Amino acid sequence: MSLVVVVLLVLAGVSEAAGRILPLAVRRPGMPRTLVAGLLVAGGLVESVVFALWPLTAWTLAELVLSSPPSADGLVWTPGLAAPLVLAAVLAFPLLGPFLHLCLFVGVGAGLAGPLAAATGLGWWSAVGCVAAAGAGLGVAVEAVRRLVVGLSAMEARESRESIA
């Protein structure tokens, strides 16, 4: 993966995390800035890794669908494929339109499907299915971890309030 692609994926990850964390920080004005910055960095790195895993996961699903393994090395991000992902992540802010954000992610997925179909020999619709399943699976996994972290932090905050009282 080139340095440009890594920078684009990190930028997309931090932007995606900011779209989720900044509204939380606005609703709770007493949150320490170091906590917000830590959540932003940690969330951005997690989102970046998930974005980086999307083509790899789609490639793995395509290998499972095929009867014989493809001859190509795999599907990787290119700057042309990652740039729309950054735009989608920038639009992740809830007030800027979740529907537009979803449409851009669908567009990015369709952009990944073409190279996947060409590299594996799958039909375009089968490649779209692999990319969609990979994206949905990664999204569900991240959302489950996100909810777990929120639940644990809420329990921790509740326990600290009870110990003070």
TrEMBL record:
<feature type="transmembrane region" description="Helical">
    <location>
        <begin position="124"/>
        <end position="142"/>
    </location>
</feature>
<keyword id="KW-0812">Transmembrane</keyword>
<feature type="transmembrane region" description="Helical">
    <location>
        <begin position="99"/>
        <end position="117"/>
    </location>
</feature>
<feature type="transmembrane region" description="Helical">
    <location>
        <begin position="74"/>
        <end position="93"/>
    </location>
</feature>
<keyword id="KW-0472">Membrane</keyword>
<protein>
    <recommendedName>
        <fullName>Integral membrane protein</fullName>
    </recommendedName>
</protein>
<keyword id="KW-1133">Transmembrane helix</keyword>
<feature type="transmembrane region" description="Helical">
    <location>
        <begin position="35"/>
        <end position="62"/>
    </location>
</feature>
